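tool=predict chain=A
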Amino acid sequence: MRALQVTQYVSSPLDLHPTTLPSPQPHPTKYLIAIHAAGTNFFDLLQIRGKYQHQPPLPWIAGAEFAGTILALPTSTSSSTPLRYKVRDRVFGAHQGAYATHILAPEAVLLPVPVGWSFEDAAGLYVTAPTAYGALVTRAQARRGEWVLVHAGAGGVGLSAVQVAKALGCTVVATAGTEAKREVCRRFGADWVVDYSGDGWAKEVVELCRRERTGNGQVGVDVVFDPVGMVDQSLRCVAWNARLVVIGFAAGKIEKVAMNRVLLKNVSLVGLHWGQYAKFEPETLHSVWNGIFDLIAAGKFKGISFTDKKYEGLESIPTALKALGERETWGKVVVSIDEKQEAQSKL
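tool=predict ok
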């Protein structure tokens, strides 16, 4: 098979190059899958540099998110635990080694590709959708009629959050740093957009609420979805009983929050670490994914693949990662992988 193998940590994704490795064989407990699309993530950039909290022992294959077709089933099966998938089923999931033409993955990390979805859109679903749904439904308990502020609205989790909030019947205010990205937010359903690249964005949100809302809502929004690290500023534009959900720190700085504002506005400040639910709260995984698939079936949640430029083949993954790291993209940057083309490229 062909893959992006990390034999030593690199300073830039452009230092990675596809190589030929032994093809994986059917496994006692894992499915053998032909990968047709792979999603890119910021943690991939950290991992190839040796700066992520989960570092496999060298050498290892980069990438985590993928979508593809099952080639072979686990060879050690039990009649008491029937397999969920069969050969040729279309699946998506997350497992170390997605930047390759093939992967071995356990059933627990796989889900069926939604009907009518492409491999590219499915490859960007596993991390972003449950993060957004878990934050807004499980943690913030957003309700119809509330106003939700989504920071970095044009990013992968941002566009997912915009769609989930709209499906819940909320009014969405999305922030983004460029007009092109704000237009993407509108396209995916945001009711209002705000430029958060300057210092006055919180006042703009307050003025918007004062103009468009009534009662308690005139002082700010009810829910804040924050994958950036903007809690302290967001506290200036929230209403009484607001809920702020901390998703991450894309800005690169861990905040110090003015806790007096949390008290004075009766704010609930909560975090979401979706990756840990499988360990501490596995029952929630099923309810969240059931909710996501219901939204997809109802036509209220669509794929968020970046479409301004196509990334095709393993050799394009370093360029895709570079574009992601430099904030040149929106949505989810996904790379198409064709096994036949990869076989030809090594000749």
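The longest strand covers residues 31-39. The two ends are 13 Å apart (CA to CA).
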